[in-house]
Amino acid sequence: MSRSGQIETLPLEEYVSGVLAAEMPAEFELEALKAQAVAARTFIARRLAAGDHSGVPVPEADVSDTVSHQAYVSKAVLERDWASGSKRAGLAKLRRAVLETRGTIMTYQGQPITASFFASSGGYTENSEEYWNAAVPYLRSVASPWELQITPNLAATYTFSNSELRSKLGLGSGELPAAASLGASGKAQPVSSRSSSGLPAEVLSLTTGHRIKEISIGGKVFTGREVREKLGLRSSQFTWKRQAGKVLITTYGNGHGVGMSQWGANGMAKQGKTATQILKHYYSGVTFTGISTLLKK
Predict the structure, then answer these.
(1) Neighbouring C-beta atoms of residue 258, cutoff 10 Å
(2) Cβ neighbourhood burial of 3 (10 Å; 0-12, 13-18, 19+)
């Protein structure tokens, strides 16, 4: 536990309940919560099966309670803050989602998958190798239109001064370019514009998931992920324009884009899709397995 530094030992399904409480709003549809429960259980199953203690400050623990692994709300906090009052119904719903998926994990070729997930997309998820280094066969780009009408603040605009951008991106002095755009078609459409200093901005390529793959800014080439991380953006799907001496960057969606979109899952559930259908959509070619069978091996 990151706050106390203590190790908490608890049954697997109680852990999944705590992760579900931390990672997805209880107001989401039950089938979306069930999909998230399976993803959370799969994550920890993969670590347990592999004996993976990476990223944990003490070797006796299996996992931390932070987003570097999975966020987690302890049983004590759930019972103190959720068991009565306005959150009581939400807690019952979370526990139902865990109970109805009890023991179920996703596997690929007999092994638990890397069940990555994120908040929302701008319409498509991402191939794993276009954000991380490795191509993973079940983490493929798929259409995810369900969140577009239901996600609050799907688009977010950031405003930067020229000096802020130069500093954050490691560019030299001078004016920054006027505009860079994804293009309405979702295909790579290079857009060049020159300011008085002659620095161009050009979208060089897009990923399969319609995010920025490479962009040239001030003569320096960045990946979309680099720009996202250097500027603290919500997503690597963005447009860029100048207005009143400032640079406005608008992002679409929230997160790395690989795996299951949580708001997309909720949108699918609202249209009557089951947790199984949701998971099979976002994780290509997976099989559902009982965790007890895996861990006994």
Answers:
(1) 25
(2) exposed
